[in-house]
């Protein structure tokens, strides 16, 4: 796979057309990240070059493409991005000449800051918080107190950068910013799910912590409550722009009595005279809080479960007809591409008929996620020093080739 082919695909994904990057170009680039003979630095540098363009459309689409590859490409891409000293330097970007240039430039600056923070988080902990194992035996639920106090602020910083995008429904006026918003929406759900599980773990350990740990944990919890409120506002925008209500989680806050109990416990450790709650009352308050946050966690998991269900249904069709790689899909003649895409859509239609109950997602942008192939192994090329979570990067299973069912086997 040549560098010119990659450059061509990047250019096609980041055209001046005011619409989100086309799925076929994103699929091809994701496929490239899984090929061992493809230079990930060259792919990343080509995307960086597109952000040097004067057009807000090209720059915004380059950021969306990068974000999409960070989410669904091979892990070695985000490893490379995390290893760089600088990523996107767009704090002063401004397109004065184009329609919507001023407005979109603001969101480009905010979006680039989030992608920088996402890469920085990976650099610090060698794991993508949006992809880590969740549940009672997940990473955040089994983490020690020391690691929790170091890791939760990193999640908070990434979530802050995401919520700082601050687009309201009236500002989501074109396909480019809409595609960015959808990716941010997906990241927000998964990021907050990890955040929520970390806080549950921290609360369960709080009354056994040392004084300084309790002080840090209390500040983390207060920040968590504030971020939950901000996320609720972000999700309201998602609902206003037509994202299905079934894909928007219900955020259940812990009772206010918990914060009082946490503050009283810290005060007693500091030697201040204060009437502390009884052990039984404190246990009931903590149990109620954990139950509320666990309900939030279950609600946050629904989106991932629906995406996994969709991938499984499509994969079943591919198992029937047999997959082939379509390395040159973005580069094939228009007529051939149209025929292949038409057949692909027919296959999806068959899968929907055979396996009903697919969520009614109102935006085609939800279909930008790939079908993962567990047979492809991640190759780690960037070394990392020991950190808060692990001494080496965790394996990533969000990898897949660009599949197309063969006509001859149907």
Automatic annotation (TrEMBL):
GO molecular function: 1-phosphatidylinositol binding; clathrin heavy chain binding; phosphatidylinositol-4,5-bisphosphate binding; SNARE binding
ENTH domain location: 1-129
GO term, biological process aspect, one: clathrin-dependent endocytosis
Subcellular location field: Cell membrane; Cytoplasmic vesicle, Clathrin-coated vesicle; Golgi apparatus; Membrane, Clathrin-coated pit
Record's keyword terms, sorted: Acetylation, Cell membrane, Coated pit, Cytoplasmic vesicle, Endocytosis, Golgi apparatus, Isopeptide bond, Membrane, Nucleus, Phosphoprotein, Ubl conjugation
Keyword check for Cell membrane: yes
Superkingdom to which the source organism belongs: Eukaryota
Signal peptide: none
Gene Ontology cellular-component terms listed: clathrin-coated pit; clathrin-coated vesicle; extrinsic component of presynaptic endocytic zone membrane; Golgi apparatus; nucleus; synaptic vesicle
Binding partners and assembly: Binds to clathrin; involves primarily the C-terminal sequences, but the full-length protein is required for full binding capacity. Binds phosphatidylinositol 4,5- bisphosphate. Interacts with PIMREG; this interaction may change the subcellular location into the nucleus. Interacts with AP2A1 (via its alpha-appendage domain). Interacts (via N-terminus) with VAMP2; VAMP3; VAMP7 and VAMP8 (Via N-terminus). Interacts with LC3/MAP1LC3A.
Function: Cytoplasmic adapter protein that plays a critical role in clathrin-mediated endocytosis which is important in processes such as internalization of cell receptors, synaptic transmission or removal of apoptotic cells. Recruits AP-2 and attaches clathrin triskelions to the cytoplasmic side of plasma membrane leading to clathrin-coated vesicles (CCVs) assembly. Furthermore, regulates clathrin-coated vesicle size and maturation by directly sensing and driving membrane curvature.
UniProt record similarity statement: Belongs to the PICALM/SNAP91 family.
Protein name per Swiss-Prot or TrEMBL: Phosphatidylinositol-binding clathrin assembly protein
Native species: Salmo trutta
Recorded name of the encoding gene: LOC115154860
């Amino acid at each position: 796979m040549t560098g010119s082919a990659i450059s061509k695909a990047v250019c096609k994904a980041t055209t001046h057309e005011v619409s989100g990057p086309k799925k076929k170009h994103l699929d091809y680039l994701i496929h490239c990240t899984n090929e061992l003979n493809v230079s990930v630095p060259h792919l990343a540098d080509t995307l960086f070059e597109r952000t040097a363009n004067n057009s807000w459309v090209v720059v915004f689409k380059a950021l969306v493409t990068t974000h999409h590859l960070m989410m669904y490409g091979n892990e070695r891409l985000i490893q490379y991005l995390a290893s760089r000293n600088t990523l996107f330097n767009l704090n002063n970007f401004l397109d004065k000449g184009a329609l919507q240039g001023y407005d979109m430039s603001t969101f480009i600056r905010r979006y680039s800051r989030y992608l920088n923070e996402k890469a920085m988080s990976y650099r610090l902990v060698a794991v993508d918080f949006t992809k880590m194992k969740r549940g009672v035996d997940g990473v955040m639920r089994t983490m020690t107190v020391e690691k929790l106090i170091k890791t939760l602020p990193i999640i908070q910083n990434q979530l802050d950068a995401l919520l700082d995008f601050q687009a309201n429904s009236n500002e989501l006026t074109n396909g480019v910013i809409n595609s960015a918003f959808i990716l941010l929406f997906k990241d927000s759900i998964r990021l907050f799910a990890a955040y929520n599980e970390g806080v549950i773990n921290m609360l369960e350990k709080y009354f056994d912590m040392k004084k300084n740990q309790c002080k840090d944990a209390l500040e983390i919890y207060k920040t968590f409550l504030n971020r939950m409120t901000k996320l609720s506002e972000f999700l309201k925008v998602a609902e206003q722009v037509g994202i299905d209500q079934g894909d928007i989680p219900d955020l259940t806050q812990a009772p206010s009595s918990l914060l009082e109990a946490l503050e009283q416990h810290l005060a007693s450790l500091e030697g201040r005279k204060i009437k502390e709650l009884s052990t039984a009352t404190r246990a009931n308050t903590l149990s109620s809080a954990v139950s509320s946050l666990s309900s939030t966690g279950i609600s946050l998991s629904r989106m991932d479960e629906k995406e996994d269900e969709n991938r499984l249904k499509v994969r079943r069709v591919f198992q029937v007809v047999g997959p082939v790689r379509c390395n040159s899909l973005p580069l094939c003649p228009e007529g051939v591409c149209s025929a292949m895409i038409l057949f692909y859509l027919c296959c999806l239609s068959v899968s929907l008929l055979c396996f009903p109950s697919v969520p009614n997602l109102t935006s085609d942008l939800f279909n930008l996620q790939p079908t993962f192939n567990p047979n492809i192994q991640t190759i780690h090329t960037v070394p990392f020093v020991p950190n808060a979570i692990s001494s080496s990067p965790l394996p990533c299973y969000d990898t897949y080739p660009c599949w197309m069912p063969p006509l001859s086997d149907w």
